[in-house]
Design goal:
By secondary structure, the protein is α/β, with parallel strands linked by helices. The chain has three domains: 287 residues, Glycosidases (TIM Barrel), CATH 3.20.20; 99 residues, Elongation Factor Tu (Ef-tu), domain 3 (Beta Barrel); 86 residues, Golgi alpha-mannosidase II (Immunoglobulin-like, Sandwich). 22% of the residues lie in helices and 25% in strands. It has an eight-stranded parallel β-barrel with strand order 1-2-5-13-14-15-16-17. β1, α1 and β2 form a beta-alpha-beta unit. It is elongated and about 80 Å long. The structure holds calcium ion (CA). Calcium ion (CA) binds next to loops.
């Protein structure tokens, strides 16, 4: 078995000349060489901002850069043909493709409808602050540019539970739509502000059975059209879990592949919330470990004051590794974004060692850690440097990070672990040591079968050679505020 390694193949401010699909196609071989086994692509369908849309403002799920809608045929990332060509090229290199899937909302309706609503208290969504009133809202989606190709489904006010704009009143508020499926919100995982069903734009109402059917039909169409290998489910804490369970089951039933499904349920301080989502979904999906990301963020900020023995405490990868997708940062946590909590540069190699070279969790690398990125917004200029040691660590993960793990999470400033390797992977075995303070040293066991063998730091930070003693132990080293990755010298 080969280790699974994902990459999030975009960031919020991706704006390079080369369209993303073409770049991915051109990089397929390089990614395979690095040991990447799966790529998570950004939303590939048309958003309300057309060719400028990042993709989370979904307009038409069936428009993968094929129709002249929202002033553009292509999306920001390219055309449908380029998208499919990229997927093909990745598949040829044995890399799977995971599609970003936004079910919470739709944006950019084509026509106004007269809709009966109640105003909602933004701070307590369960409280209505008006009687019924009629407003004009952009709730009708006819997709005139697509003209019924692939699906003739027309979305209207019965498909949505809320909107945030009354066109006739020119009023921005949260309005709960009164339709035959309910007068308020659906039961969703997040209880923030009473009920966090409503996030943005036109909130989709899954109580409408026609909506559920349409989204299942779409999922099957998308799977077949793009030959997908999995789905990344956006913003699930704002979406009916009952619907998602139904959708996932329908997809697993209809698709003749082992789908990788991973849900984004952004929680930074309460493991119980993620655990209850695992229970509610019956383990149907993997979950991003935002708790581990948050620990990395705090550890990087605190420097040597952070107690590294606690770095995995209350994280999903520690409590429930089988469903955990680990990551250092993503497009929401990067600088200038809504959930900004970017892990400081010095700590990123340490964090990558902790997600790539341990046995728990499926790691997902962030785009800007493999490629430099520069961007600017409202006068703020950001330069993100790729992590120099990342390619090396990815290869080590692919080839050598196997077998029994022995943990030495035993000093506030210096922790380590070893991997004993396995028969299937030649010369596999590892010793990792990292420090957030002074340079570190630690005696760790790699296994008696390595007695007399020599280990070297593949990252090249330490030039010593470590010889394993008769009992299978060696004294490993790492530089101050850094990480060393020791492999068998062959
Ligand atoms: Ca919702």
């Amino acid at each position: 078995m080969r280790n699974t390694t994902l990459i999030q193949y975009f960031h919020w401010y991706y704006n390079e000349e080369e369209n993303l699909w073409t770049k991915a196609r051109n990089e397929a071989d390089n990614l395979a060489q690095l040991g990447i086994t799966g790529v998570w692509f950004p939303p590939a369908y048309k958003g309300t901002n057309g060719g400028y849309s990042i993709g989370y403002d979904t307009y038409d799920l069936y428009d993968l850069g094929e129709f002249d809608q929202k002033n553009s045929v292509s999306t920001k990332y390219g055309s449908k043909e380029e998208y499919l060509a990229a997927i093909n090229a990745l598949h040829e290199k044995g890399i799977s493709v995971i599609a970003d899937t936004i079910f919470n909302h739709k944006a950019g309706g084509d026509e106004l409808e007269k809709v009966t609503v109640k105003r909602v208290n933004e701070e307590d969504r369960n409280e209505f602050i008006s009687e019924n009133l009629e407003i004009e809202a952009w709730t009708k989606f006819t997709f005139p540019g697509r003209q019924g190709k692939y699906s003739e489904f027309i979305w209207d006010f019965r498909c949505f539970s809320g909107v945030d704009w009354a066109e006739d009143l020119k009023e921005a508020s949260i309005f709960a739509i009164q339709n035959e499926y309910g007068e308020g919100w659906e039961d969703v995982p997040s209880k923030e502000m009473g009920n966090y069903d409503y996030l943005m734009y036109n909130d989709i109402d899954f109580r409408n059975p026609a909506v559920r059917e349409e989204l299942k039909n779409w999922g099957k169409w998308y799977f077949e059209t793009a030959n997908l290998d999995g789905f990344r489910l956006d913003a699930v804490k704002h979406i009916s879990t009952e619907f998602l369970n139904e959708w996932i089951d329908a997809m697993r039933e209809a698709c003749d592949k082992e789908l990788l499904i991973v849900a984004e349920n952004w929680v930074i301080d309460d493991i119980a919330e993620l655990e209850s989502y695992v229970d509610a979904t019956g383990g149907r999906t993997q979950l991003f470990d935002s708790l581990l990301h948050h620990n990395f963020y705090l550890a990087a900020q605190a420097g040597k004051e952070y107690d590294l023995t606690t770095i995995f405490d209350n994280t999903l990868v520690q409590n429930n590794p089988l469903v955990s997708v680990t990551f250092v940062d993503n497009h929401d946590s990067q600088p200038l974004q809504s959930l900004e909590s970017f892990v400081e540069e010095w700590f990123r190699p340490l964090a990558y060692a902790m997600i790539l070279l341990r046995e728990g969790g499926i790691p997902c690398v962030f785009y800007t850690d493999l490629y430099d990125a520069s961007y600017e917004e409202e006068g703020n200029k950001i330069d993100l440097k790729a992590v120099a040691s990342l390619p090396q660590m990815l290869k080590v993960r692919d080839l050598l990070a196997y077998g029994l793990q022995r943990d030495y999470l035993d000093h506030p400033n210096c922790i380590g672990w070893t991997r004993e390797g396995d028969e299937e992977h030649e010369n596999s075995a590892l010793a990792i040591l990292l420090s957030n303070g002074e340079e570190g040293f630690k005696t760790m066991e790699v296994g008696a079968k390595f007695a007399g063998k020599t280990f070297i730091d593949v990252l090249g930070y330490r030039t010593e050679e470590v010889v394993i003693n008769e009992e299978g132990f060696g004294e490993f080293l790492c530089p101050a505020g850094s990480v060393s990755v020791w492999i068998l010298k062959v």
